[in-house]
Specification:
Structural class: alpha+beta
Shape: extended
Radius of gyration: 35 Å
Distance between the termini: 125 Å
Strand content: 25-35%
């Protein structure tokens, strides 16, 4: 009888041990599941952050690419000329730092207008001062060095789509003197009546040379770009077209 009681006690103990073991295993499983769930949540958050970061980088790159390829107007000087000869760019006649590159603001969805509708004082405002249907940008080329210089200026067509350049006008004010440039008539008949000069070539608007640019001298430039509604080539075919112009300056002689 005693032996039977001992056997029952051992059986009860074994059952208790098994139960305790099951409880411990259950707790371990719950803890493991909780840790796994936490890991999954953290990985999802990390993945979302990576996607957001990639999206931001892609957007910045796309904006930079679009601006570089289709932006309206950029002006540059050779960095060597800036560092060694003191040639610099500025949006104001007084400057606090030297610049080798300036960018005008873009006008999206520009519609055609008449050049006669442009403001009379359009070359009196510094920096970007665009209208709804034209680009206007004023900047200064400054000789902050000690030598008298001769420099060349050249405006080029860096990108064009849908033949929008057929009806584009570019007005260039140099120290208040205005010249309007346009592409040769599509029929080869010379410049349009509202223009002063034809584009120098299919990829170049104009080129010029400035001599005896003394130390401290400042040349003021205003570039105005618009789509001339009175041009015979201002047709629906050019809708959606883009155009980017660039102006480069370089020293050709110093004294």
């Amino acid at each position: 009888m005693k032996k039977h009681s001992e056997n029952n006690a051992e059986s009860v103990q074994d059952v208790q041990n098994v139960h305790e073991s099951d409880v411990v295993d259950t707790l371990k499983l719950r803890r493991t599941a909780k840790e796994a769930k936490k890991y999954v949540v953290l990985m999802r958050i990390f993945s979302i952050l990576v996607i957001i970061l990639v999206a931001i980088v892609a957007i910045v790159y796309a904006i930079s690419y679009f601006y570089d390829k289709y932006g309206s107007f950029t002006v540059k000087i050779n960095k060597y000329d800036m560092v060694n000869q003191g040639l610099t760019l500025s949006e104001t006649p007084d400057y606090t730092k030297t610049n080798s590159k300036l960018n005008a603001d873009i006008v999206y969805d520009m519609t055609n207008i008449s050049g006669e509708d442009l403001p009379a004082n359009i070359d009196k405002v510094n920096g970007s001062h665009n209208g709804e249907s034209y680009i206007a940008y004023t900047f200064y080329l400054i000789n902050s060095g000690k030598d008298t210089l001769t420099y060349d200026g050249e405006m080029t067509i860096e990108n064009v789509t849908n033949n929008v350049d057929e009806a584009i006008r570019v007005a260039l004010y140099v120290n208040g003197e205005k010249t309007v440039y346009c592409k040769t008539k599509s029929n080869g008949g010379g410049k349009e009546s509202d223009c002063d000069e034809e584009f120098a070539s299919s990829t170049k608007v104009m080129q010029s040379r400035r001599e005896k640019f003394a130390p401290g001298a400042k040349d003021k430039y205003t570039v105005v770009i618009w789509l001339e509604g009175n041009d015979p080539d201002c047709l629906d075919d050019i809708v959606g077209g883009t155009m980017k112009l660039g102006m480069d300056f370089k020293i050709v002689e110093g004294t």
